[in-house]
Amino acid sequence: MTALSPDPTFYPTPAEAMRAPPEKVAYVAALHVGTGIDKPDFIAVVDFDPRSDDYGRIIHRVELDETGDELHHFGWNACSSMLCPYGDPTVERRYLIVPGLRSSNVYVLDTKPDPRRPRIGRRSRALRSPGSQDIRGCTQFTAVRMRSTSAPSADKETRVLEGCSSSTTEPSSP
Length: 174
Description:
mainly beta
């Protein structure tokens, strides 16, 4: 039987994380909102390996689907808290969860098998309010936990927002 071990990027203490090898790539939100450029935002993959000829350069772009998302505060699907007593140390740090602030779309970028060339694994479109063209300005929504035992499929969409109407910022009753 194969022994299970935690993701090697999880560390039990901040001190151990600081001693860990540095990241080789960085993921950066690149926005077109407010620039007058009518194109979707993208995630830039930047080479952060000082020994690389491409150090500091964008080496890949993950082009998103919709204009006006305004990417905001994205992060990993898992972190070192998976090592705590109630965590799941078998989860791997694999997916970047990337929300659109203005659109409420959520993209899940799969960084495996190649962290230098992530791809959109799943896209969750915001539900549009009845009688409304979009939900921009809606500040309250109900999110669902997106957990899968298999890799997300690029051809599937999940709708994750409920209870938002264009006339109120309070969520409706379930």
